[in-house]
Amino acid sequence: MEHNTPVTIVIFGATGDLAEKKLFPALFQLFLNNYLHEDRFAIIAFARRPFSDETFGALVEEWCSSVGVDSQHDFEVVKSKLARFLSHIRYHQGYFDQLDAYERLNKVLAEIDERFDECSHKLFHLALSPFFYESVLENMNKAGLHLSCVAGPGITRVLLEKPIGIDAKSAKKINTLLARIFSEEQIFRIDHYLMKMPLWDLLTMHFTEPSLKDVWNHEFIDHIELHLFEKIDIQGRGSFYDHVGALRDVGQNHLLQMLALVAMEKPKTDHGEAFREERRKVVSKLALPKLNRKLPRLIRGQYEGYEHEEGVEAGSQTETFFSCEATIDTPRWKGVSFIVSAGKALDVSVTEAVVYFKNGDRIEFRIQPDPQVTFHIGGRTDMLTWRVIQDHLGHLHNAPDGYEKVYHDALHGEQTGFVSKGEIEASWKCVDTLRKLWTALPLVHYPKGSKPLHFGEKIQ
Ligand code: BG6
């Protein structure tokens, strides 16, 4: 992307939780670091609520208030940059199912391009739940928003949040619709975990670190655990979460992508399609637990009080915690179990991959908070305390949340950190099978602030 080409980013769902917590702060961070041009960029915030540009701007100001704090930037510089950033945002009120809103949007885009005196690059970011995708994509198509400006070199790209669909069937429908409107190069399926730099550090280490690359297989590794534990509960997102649950909210995407990065073979090239294909292969080779065992290696739980959350149905059976054991059917991982767990309202917030070696050694790759890698090496014990020595190997990238890179890479047309259609299909196949399996399992209720649940615990 040429730095001078103007950029217009349209965010559908601009008043939502994601926009507040991640999207606007990431965009402001990019602006602060001069990645977005001082004048030649615009953001159009598309949402249903009746805000003026001023009221919406005041909200964004609040959402971005911690960006730049503790950084190399001077307080006054951050303040004046924020004021300029806000001046580039326009609020666009509209309902996702009403064509008129998209036609008006098309006019607004034309006006903006006229002001730039050039066809801007356009990113349409669907920061929405998958239930809206069909209607938004159909209306974009009808209003001609998918077409690039006739007179210029501008690009038009569409970014979609996870989950794409809620099962294999609905995902296929969305992918078919996308293919009818856009070419595959224009479609960017987001999983912001794939943009978290510490995860790439982990990948690079197991590919290249001499002490790791030769032992990264079933001969040396006993099992690997992947955790995405959160202290937060569903934070008012009941109407979305109750239809999705932990497995589809973070399992089908973030955790399976983490698993893919931990277990994939080295691709022929370090980016592009070959890379995505290696990730897909891992997910397509996953084998799930059998339920005909006494103690199923599968658990699903719900925090107490969940069913009284706004937007949640009384008697809801939606899980807010799950843990599942799987194996990967490849020569490298023969017999190694992968235990994948995630949950909300727990006593800890941590995302990590923990690798347990057969000789008792253990390596923890902490992705967040405070990304770091720690070796627990059993062969060496402290002579005074007889405790196992922990070698703190070093910090991983303490990188931003992921969305700076989402926008950066989407503008550059770099697809490596985005999810391919094949990966989506493979992951839904696995998640659908798991969901069928676990309907036979009771839901475990746990108090808020509990420790993560483990297999074989007492079921209430
Ligand atoms: C989102 C999920 O995709 O990821 C949320 O919808 C979850 O439920 C979040 O809290 C976790 O992301 P991060 O970057 O805060 O770890």
Task: Break the fold down into its secondary structure elements and pairings.
Layout: E1 7-12, H1 17-32, E2 41-47, H2 53-63, H3 75-86, E3 89-93, H4 99-116, E4 121-126, H5 133-143, E5 156-160, H6 168-181, E6 187-189, H7 197-208, H8 210-213, E7 221-229, H9 238-241, H10 245-263, H11 273-284, E8 286-287, E9 298-303, E10 321-328, E11 337-343, E12 350-357, E13 362-368, E14 372-381, E15 388-395, H12 403-412, H13 421-438, E16 444-446
Parallel strand pairs: 1-2, 1-4, 2-3, 4-5, 5-6, 7-11, 9-16
Antiparallel strand pairs: 7-12, 8-10, 9-10, 10-11, 12-13, 13-14, 14-15
The structure holds 6-O-phosphono-beta-D-glucopyranose.
Largest sheet report: 10 strands, mixed
Q: What is the H/E order?
A: EHEHHEHEHEHEHHEHHHEEEEEEEEHHE
Structural class label: alpha/beta
Mean pLDDT: 90
Amount of helix: 25-40%
Shape: globular
Number of helices: 13
Bound molecules: 6-O-phosphono-beta-D-glucopyranose
* Quantity of strands, as a count: 16
Question: Approximately how much beta-strand content do the residues carry?
Answer: 15-25%
- Spans of at least 5 consecutive residues whose pLDDT stays below 50 are 381-389
Distance between the termini: 56 Å
- Rg is 23 Å
Features:
single chain; 460 residues; alpha/beta; 10-stranded mixed beta sheet; 6-stranded parallel beta sheet; 13 helices; 16 strands; binds 6-O-phosphono-beta-D-glucopyranose
Explain how this protein is built.
With 460 residues, the protein is α/β, with parallel strands linked by helices. Helices cover 35% and strands 22% of the residues. It is built from 13 helices and 16 strands. The chain has helices at 17-32, 53-63, 75-86, 99-116, 133-143, 168-181, 197-208, 210-213, 238-241, 245-263, 273-284, 403-412, 421-438, and strands at 7-12, 41-47, 89-93, 121-126, 156-160, 187-189, 221-229, 286-287, 298-303, 321-328, 337-343, 350-357, 362-368, 372-381, 388-395, 444-446. Strands 7, 8, 9, 10, 11, 12, 13, 14, 15 and 16 form a 10-stranded mixed β-sheet that branches. A 6-stranded parallel β-sheet has the order 3-2-1-4-5-6. Strand 4 (121-126), helix 5 and strand 5 (156-160) form a beta-alpha-beta unit. Helix 1 (17-32) packs across helix 12 (403-412). The longest helix is centred in the middle third of the chain and has 19 residues, at 245-263. It starts with 6 loop residues before the first strand and ends in a 14-residue tail after the last strand. Residues 381-389 have low confidence and may be disordered. The structure holds 6-O-phosphono-beta-D-glucopyranose. 6-O-phosphono-beta-D-glucopyranose is lined by residues 192, 230, 249-250, 351, 401.
